[in-house]
């Protein structure tokens, strides 16, 4: 085998896709409720994205960050408006690395408080910020990371010292099991951070780009983070990451402190730019689909093997009493693509553009499968 064994790969080869339908090399159609792990938010091979990419590919793909890049400025403006400054990377983990570096440089403090069950990526600082022992296993960790209990404000208070640079969290924990932050917890956290001169760093890598029904999840919680990161859905499948911070923090990432060869190159920025436009048009109508989704998901509460149904917007978790990995592979055999999260949670991240009928049909199939367990 020429590939490392670090992934479990299901025995299927996908060769093409259109919106929420993927096709394998036998020309079998699959219904996608995963968005390729939260990436295809505006649908696979979205025609507007394909057109923008094709057009840009014919002009120029790569321009290093030694020269002006108006496309980056346009995307930055669409992501953060007038009050945020942007840096572009190539992945979620890399955006979080930049965010952690900025928080430390801007405050002169070193400790980052993150949370149990969190997931921030696999590079070193992002991995250290991730509050899961299994992800740290067998490796020495970076210093300067402390872990509080998610949704427990007192657990944060006990970690306070005068060396806390930032509190870092996902507003809906994705990989950890689709666990939404409680509004009261977030409110208390924002106040605690404000009172103690600590930055709030929100990882919107999975929750961003319309996933929860608003462009970013922090809009549901009525506050503006000091720093936030985006990646997965940002360019609808072209690798990208972004770190945004309040303008006042911008000088801390001074000349020479950070950089990337590919970060924000014209090809990926053309994709992000049009993805953001498509999203702007789609978000006002998305609420209807979300309401229908949660009406259907409420029916899952009655199933014997279901212990909880939770999430926000187009991000849903169904906690199960049966091994979730088997469920994921059985459903793949039924040509439905779903994900797992945490120990026992079935995770659904359908493309925001999935036709409502297809969504309901796939959910009925999942419900039938689970009801027979
Ligand atoms: C996926 C994910 C990451 C890591 O993103 P990569 O692009 O895989 O590096 C970080 N944070 C969250 C919340 C994620 O869901």
From TrEMBL:
<dbReference type="GO" id="GO:0003992">
    <property type="term" value="F:N2-acetyl-L-ornithine:2-oxoglutarate 5-aminotransferase activity"/>
</dbReference>
<dbReference type="InterPro" id="IPR004636">
    <property type="entry name" value="AcOrn/SuccOrn_fam"/>
</dbReference>
<keyword id="KW-0663">Pyridoxal phosphate</keyword>
<dbReference type="InterPro" id="IPR049704">
    <property type="entry name" value="Aminotrans_3_PPA_site"/>
</dbReference>
<dbReference type="InterPro" id="IPR015422">
    <property type="entry name" value="PyrdxlP-dep_Trfase_small"/>
</dbReference>
<dbReference type="InterPro" id="IPR050103">
    <property type="entry name" value="Class-III_PLP-dep_AT"/>
</dbReference>
<keyword id="KW-0808">Transferase</keyword>
<dbReference type="InterPro" id="IPR005814">
    <property type="entry name" value="Aminotrans_3"/>
</dbReference>
<comment type="similarity">
    <text>Belongs to the class-III pyridoxal-phosphate-dependent aminotransferase family.</text>
</comment>
<dbReference type="InterPro" id="IPR015424">
    <property type="entry name" value="PyrdxlP-dep_Trfase"/>
</dbReference>
<dbReference type="InterPro" id="IPR015421">
    <property type="entry name" value="PyrdxlP-dep_Trfase_major"/>
</dbReference>
<dbReference type="GO" id="GO:0030170">
    <property type="term" value="F:pyridoxal phosphate binding"/>
</dbReference>
<keyword id="KW-0032">Aminotransferase</keyword>
<comment type="pathway">
    <text>Amino-acid biosynthesis.</text>
</comment>
<keyword id="KW-0028">Amino-acid biosynthesis</keyword>
<dbReference type="GO" id="GO:0006526">
    <property type="term" value="P:L-arginine biosynthetic process"/>
</dbReference>
<dbReference type="GO" id="GO:0042802">
    <property type="term" value="F:identical protein binding"/>
</dbReference>
<protein>
    <submittedName>
        <fullName>Acetylornithine aminotransferase</fullName>
        <ecNumber>2.6.1.11</ecNumber>
    </submittedName>
</protein>
<dbReference type="Pfam" id="PF00202">
    <property type="entry name" value="Aminotran_3"/>
</dbReference>
């Amino acid at each position: 085998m020429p590939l490392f064994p670090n992934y479990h790969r299901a025995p299927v080869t996908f060769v093409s896709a259109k919106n929420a339908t993927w096709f394998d090399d036998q020309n079998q159609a699959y219904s996608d409720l995963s968005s390729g792990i939260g990436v295809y938010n505006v649908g696979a091979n979205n025609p507007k994205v394909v057109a923008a990419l094709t057009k840009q590919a014919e002009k120029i793909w790569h321009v290093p960050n030694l020269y002006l890049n108006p496309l980056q400025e346009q995307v930055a403006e669409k992501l953060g408006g007038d009050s945020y400054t942007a840096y572009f990377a190539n992945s979620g983990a890399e955006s979080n690395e930049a965010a952690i570096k900025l928080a430390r440089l801007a405050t002169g403090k070193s400790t980052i408080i993150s949370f149990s069950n969190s997931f921030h990526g696999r590079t070193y600082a992002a991995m250290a910020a991730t509050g899961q022992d299994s992800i740290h296993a067998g490796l020495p960790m970076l210093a300067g990371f402390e872990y509080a209990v998610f949704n427990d404000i007192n657990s944060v208070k006990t970690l306070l010292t005068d060396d806390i640079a930032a509190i870092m969290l996902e507003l809906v924990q994705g990989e950890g099991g689709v666990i939404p932050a409680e509004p009261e917890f977030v409110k208390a956290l924002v106040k605690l951070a404000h009172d103690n001169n600590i930055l709030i760093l929100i990882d919107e890598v999975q929750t961003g780009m319309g996933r929860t029904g608003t462009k970013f999840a922090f809009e549901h919680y009525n506050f503006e983070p000091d720093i936030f990161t985006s990646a997965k859905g940002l360019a609808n499948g072209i690798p990208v990451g972004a770190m945004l911070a309040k303008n006042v923090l911008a000088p801390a990432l001074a000349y020479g402190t950070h950089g990337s060869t590919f970060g924000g190159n014209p090809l990926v920025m053309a994709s992000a730019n049009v993805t953001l436009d498509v999203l702007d048009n789609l978000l006002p109508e998305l609420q209807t689909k979300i309401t229908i989704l949660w009406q259907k998901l409420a029916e899952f509460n009655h199933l014997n093997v279901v212990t909880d149904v939770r999430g926000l917007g187009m991000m849903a978790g169904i906690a199960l009493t049966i091994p979730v990995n088997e469920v994921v592979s059985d459903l793949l055999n039924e040509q439905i693509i779903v994900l797992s999260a945490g120990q026992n949670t079935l995770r659904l991240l359908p493309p925001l553009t999935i036709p409502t009928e297809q969504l309901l049909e796939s959910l009925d199939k999942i419900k039938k499968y689970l009801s027979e367990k």
